[in-house]
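Now for one record.
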Amino acid sequence: MIEKVVEKISERRFAEEVRDHPNLVGMRSHMEGLASLLEMESEDEVRIIGISGMEGVGKTTIADYLYRQFSSRFSEHCFIYDVKSICRSTGQSYLEQHFLSEILRIKPKRLARKGAGSHSIKERLRNRKVFAVLDNVDKVEQIHGLAKDKSWFGPGSRVIIITRDKGLLDTCGVEIVYPVKCLSSKDALQMFKQIVFKGTDPPACFEQLLTRVSRLAYGLPSAIIRYSSLCDWHTKTEAEWEKLVSRYEESPHKNIVDILKSSYAELHQVDKLAFLYVACLFNGADIKRVSDLLDDGSESRIQVLVEKSLVDISPQGCINMNTLVENMGRETVVEESDRTPTKQRILWEPRRIYSVLRDESGTRKIEGLALPMCKMPYVLEIERRSFRKMYSVKFLKFHTRNKTSKLQLSPTARLPDMLKLLHWDAYPSRALPSEFLSGFLVELTLRCSRLQFLSKTNLDLRKLKRLDVSESKELKELPDLSGANQLEELVVEGCKSLTFLKDLPQSLNSLNAHGCNSLETVSLPSNHSIKHIDLSDCSPLNNDQELITHFLTQGQHDQETLLRFACIPQTTMPSYLDNCCPRLSPNLMGFSAGIMVACSGPYHLKFSESSYSWNCEEFSINLKPQLYPDLDRVEEEAMNYLVIIQVLSSINNNQPRSFLLELPSRFNSPPVEIRETRVHMFH
């Protein structure tokens, strides 16, 4: 009976995966990537390699093709399809027995005791050159029972473990991992055409429809296959297909959602919640910001989602969730509420949010609202009772690209008491509501607001980590921030009425005040933690030598390597910097580099935290600010910027021989000119 179950699983997987592999889109690049990891030419070492990726991305298909390419080189080889199902149906002991019988081509024997299978694997294969593929592994015990250590196999052996759980590979010490990503839009369309039309050219009238259908899969091969199975282009008219495609664009096919749900179902409850928050609120957001909001600064919840191949982290540190996975998460939230908006954990559909706020029908089930205000049907005023029953709301995101808000605020309005995130673009009032409770706030974003003061009463900002009031042109002053001892990022860019910044907390890491052209005073705290400060286009601060000296000499240095950046309006190089060529030595402990940049109108330079970098190995600075036109600036006179980059590090082992400053090619001609550079070395 057990043998029949295993045989059926293997036959089913084999039938699903066996296709004309040479024609599969992207297979060549996968083989090239895996070949470099396998190093088949190396006969002396054993390699255990993981293949990871989200459900349905094609891991098994890739491994199947790889197996057919290389298995004939090995006297002992096997492909164990769907280890997870075998283990669940027949148990770990039989899995070990089945593996040994498959790779040695012997009849399975009943094992006398637990662990006997793994012992036999180790004893019988340690002198044999084997090639084994273990598909859909989901437990540590499965790896430990079949391939716990390289010493279990003879020289030249290769073992491939397929899993969607990257964390599982890390736990088992599998260091070489090949990640499988979704197809590009171009490759997805090619694969879709290839399956539906068997390599022939599709009718020209269907070209746009084909593109739209392929986009529904968002690069996921299994979704492309599912959609292609629904498409018999010879039985429907173009109008009928238009109607069907439009329906799927509004709501994905249920089978597509079901492909991905197994990954979600295996999460622990707290990780499921983090997944739903990302799917409904934070897809594309910075991982640290999301971790602060969900985990009080720990990235453990997001890391679990990464390990389960449900999200990726971009090189810029942003969370990327495939749109199909996002749709699955949102559908899960809707299903949990019995499709009743007032009971939905998170709301994001504009008309539903509009109705809930207008009718004051929200309940304590609601924890977050994400409202694209430009899609609201009408203007709505938030009243005192609008959030009355929404005791559990922690996240409010009212976002728009417009300068005006479709949400207005009555003078007596009250916001939820438990907010961790308040993001309200084009905030319509002069101050926050007088009864606003801010003690739980982690992030406050009120961009392009009508604020004159943040609040007329004292705010409890002890948990606040990020404050963004950029482009609030009427904002005159900020509250006392000295008690906000967790505040790390302050953004006041474009606050043209702001005249001073004082009472800044020691915890502050980043200050962006670009374009605050009324700003006269910036008081940095002693022993500050600021690593990035942009005061460009703050003309009243011109030649503030005290500010420069304080920034460079009074900061904390409790890291192995510290990179500090500042940009301020300046016409002369500060005396702090040497007027000589830098002297490099093996005892170098760091440096401060000053670069005087002039920018002619009507352009401005803007320096974000991604506009510069320091390469320790090459001992070079790369500077790449944003150059943008300013419609309010018509004069041709050049505006001067002093850029300072300070690196403090124990780099004496590098023994640098030169110092390199790399600038964008567009700096070689107007409107930007490098007027002077200086470097001060620390020995």
Summary: DSSP finds 19 helices and 29 strands in the chain. Confidence is low (pLDDT under 50) at residues 1-23. Residues 77 and 105 are 9 Å apart (CA to CA).
